[in-house]
Design brief:
By secondary structure, the protein is α/β, with parallel strands linked by helices. The chain contains 20 helices and 12 strands. It folds into 4 domains: about 180 residues, no CATH class; about 110 residues, no CATH class; about 100 residues, no CATH class; about 80 residues, Methane Monooxygenase Hydroxylase, Chain G, domain 1 (Up-down Bundle), CATH 1.20.58. About 45% of the residues lie in helices and about 10% in strands. Strands 1-2-3-6-7-8-9-10 form an 8-stranded parallel beta barrel, surrounded by 4 helices. A two-stranded antiparallel ribbon has the order 4-5. Strands 11-12 form a two-stranded antiparallel sheet.
Length: about 600
Amino acid sequence: MMIHDKAHTFHIPVMGIGYTIDSPLKVAHYGISSVISLVDDILMEKMRKFYCQQFKLPFTAITSRSKDHRARRITAYLDLISTVATSRFTALLNSVSKDGIQVKKYMDMLPASSDLKQGFYRMLSEGKHKKDVLEWVRKHLSMGDIDVNIMTKLDRETYHGHEQQPVEFNDAHAALRGFAKSKLRSSLVLSAGMNPKLYAYMEEFDDFYPRENGSLQKKITLKVSDYRSALIQGAYLAKKGLWVSEYRVESGLNCGGHAFATDGYLLGPILEEFKQKRSTLIQSTHDVLVQGLKAKKRYYPQAPMEVKISAQGGVGTAEEHQFMLEHYHLNSVGWGSPFLLVPEVVNVDPQTQQLLKSAREEDLLLSNTSPLGVLFNTLKGNTKDKEKAMRISKGKPGSPCPKKFASNNREFTSNSICTASRQYQRLKIAELEEKQLPPEEYREAYEQITSKSCICVGLGTSTLLINGLDTTKEGDGVSICPGPNLAYFSETISLQKMVDHIYGRTNVLKRKDRPNMFIKEIRLYVDYFKNQLKSTKPLQDRQMKYLEKFHKNLMEGIHYYKDLFSTVALKPAGIKADLLYDLQALEQELDNLFLVKV
């Protein structure tokens, strides 16, 4: 059973800061949903000016000196994206009156099973008049969603001079306000866990509350790691009268960007729990919502509103895509990293594009690069890391930190600074030198300090380079954060070809050795477990308990897949035996690792 009401059964998740910042302009008119990062209002302002010039629209700069400039820039940019995307969609619909090429492209990209696609071509075969066809497409075709993402951890305090501003001017709060005041009717995707202050701030905006017809102007999507997190956060927001319209489950390690490793819980078992308890999640959250809305004396729906379940992380073939939809009853599946090789959709400069095309497994690293203290996927040889290494070699580690979005450390200063900044690393190294550690310990500690990179700049620079915009403030160094799955994609391709690959009409994978997405995730977790064992010598009681829990959860996940793959039909033919063999080998390796350590 598949559950989806959109034209497509996939979506393009947020990637970095700038890679998908204008993707809706490129795909929304084809019914494809994508997500914009709201981290960098400076980049958004530059892109707004760029597009206003391109489309001959009026532009008035919102300077950093103007009141509430961050929120206002975000609102202005999102309104521009909405206006241009809607205009392109209208032009696509109206193309029926002429050659109809754009509408046919929209239809040809849809999956073969699409009722919309079948209905359109049936009308053409019946020789319907263009006027009737135009009326039909206006009634049935829809744009892709223009969703936005806020990483809740990026909620830096802001200052006016030396005076700290009220909490509503924190970065995430201002981004929320910018979205709330925009004319978009779409979802706010919240990632990186709970931020109670930010969640409370959402209560102040009417668009997040249900209207009397049961609709929502602004929806909430939670990116979650497991069912328990969804249940807790969904109920927490429901108490405030706020409904979560979608739970987006992401693999802990088989994904791009920041990697929030679970305690050995794997994607398949997590999705199985959502599948089994979906109705419980919806009904229990609805009951809490009703009480929350009654307390606010607001309209409340009699029946639960729509809730979608989607997933992303490591999907790479049409067979995997279809299995995820059908077996776990998902509304949509996210395809992220492979789209980094689709220039029509994302902003990747030529030098980084070449690195991506030639990347192998060993070039896609799980690193300590992020100043947020969270594991971060990165690409070996990216120009931001080369820039970082050059500074270290000159005895000047750390970045100038021109944007400060990741400033969250007060170890040495009263105001928050970034651990990737030159200021922080100079202070931290001075502290390290005072300890007079043995050379090997000193070297390890020094590398730990200087490993941090200025990703809040680097993840947006490619957008400036590809569009020929000024990088004087940012520099030309590029950070990029593809997931491990990118190792198996090796050529730049068109949007049409990528969509054809997703739906099984073609195959863009040249390598024959790509592991199944579930096997790959287990391999990543086994390797992660190895590293945890190496880094905990000798074992303390607390560490031992954590490792035992991790081992137990990972083993249970492997047993889940052994049962699953033994009983369900799988494509392509013959893959079942290979999967069961791989699972047995991984199970044995995991057991041997733990026995040796104990």
